[in-house]
Specification:
Blueprint: H1 3-16, H2 21-51, H3 61-71
């Protein structure tokens, strides 16, 4: 923790030290929940990184693209209501 963060923490503690125990416990609860949410969001971001490179196929990119294009079919029949 750098000096600036310590000063901020001291300032906040100075503001809340005279509050009732109930209010301080509520603040602790809210801060804890915000940290859990932040941790969950970080894990979500990391889970997307795990998908990178997960496609395993012996075909080249050009072969895969050709397969995708050749498997397309269009049916532009308009259905009656």
């Amino acid at each position: 923790m750098n000096l600036n963060n310590i000063n901020i923490a001291d300032n906040f503690f100075g503001m809340i030290k005279n509050l009732s125990a109930e209010v301080r416990l509520e603040l602790i609860s809210r801060i804890t929940e915000s940290l859990k949410e932040s941790h969950f969001k970080d894990q979500e971001k990391q889970s997307w990184k795990e998908l990178y490179g997960s496609w395993d196929d012996p075909r080249s990119a050009d072969e895969i693209i050709e397969d995708l294009r050749s498997s397309r079919n269009t049916n532009r029949q308009i259905e009656d209501f």
